[in-house]
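Continuing the series of single-chain predictions for the mutant panel. This is the parent chain; the variants come on the following pages.
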Amino acid sequence: MGRVFSWEYFSFLQIDDAAANKELLLIPVLLLLLGFVWMKLVRTETTAEKSGININEAYADVIANEVDSGTEIDSPDEDEKEEEVAEEKGEDEKKDD
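Parent structure:
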């Protein structure tokens, strides 16, 4: 009889040798089986999806999204220009009144 620590009961349990041997054989077989099934799933997904984009298309997409969002890296003084435009609009409104 082997002694195995149980986290559920925080104590050692008595397990007969036949059950321990079955567990020692079952766990690696189960891991290999699950790994084989996982690799088959991955292989079928990668073969089914051949419509990926290359690095140039990804770069062009990033640049297009950056321009659309207004967060261009090349224009650090963009905030200053916006403040000047806002001040000019404020002055124009005052002149109209």
